[in-house]
Design goal:
The protein has about 230 residues and is mainly alpha-helical. The protein contains ten helices and no strands.
Amino acid sequence: MQAGIVVGNLASAIGFRTEDAALVADLKAGSEEAFAVLIAQYHQPLYSLIARSLNDPADAADITQEVFIKVFRSIRGFHGESSLRTWLYRIALHEASNQRRWWSRHKKQEITIDSPSESDSEDHGSAFCLSSTLSDDSDSPFDHAAQTELRERVESALRQVPEAFRTVVVLREIEGFAYEEIAEILNVNLGTVKSRLTRGRSALRILLVATDKTGSNGSASSPTVRTSKETVTR
């Protein structure tokens, strides 16, 4: 049975790579239709990834556009060492990282009316599925409002998680990448991915529990999440 699963996974991977190869070939040939297909397929997931990676999500649209421009200019240098999806996510995270560095140099000291505020909270328990929390499949207006509030709380807490941990949490819990794919995207070993994921989940849980207590007690204090260089590089 295990051998059957391996063969099935291999066949799936081969089919995926074949589909990649056809799209890449068309992109390298300068096909506008292929580029439109690429944008239609990857625009929303890349935008979501970038928005959750930036200090200011309002910059996500511009950075996503820059990613596709870079892809268009660099596609001839893509030789299939990884999947197309992995390559795209690597570029997106690189561009988001560049934007974060720019933001820390030029905008960190600015105070604007668009700065995210702490969300009000109500106790919902510490166990939840991050991917379902950050999706919107509500039925009624009440459910929609409750889901929106919860999603905003999680998004706000997620941005307070140290960047190295947050990236792994987003790639694994929201984007659904396998550990091996995450290691390939971030160019780190498998143990580092698992360690960062564990620490990221723990940091997010601490932040969410703290916002629950803040909502209950009316306190404005915020939790301390370890961000030392030693912690982040593990």
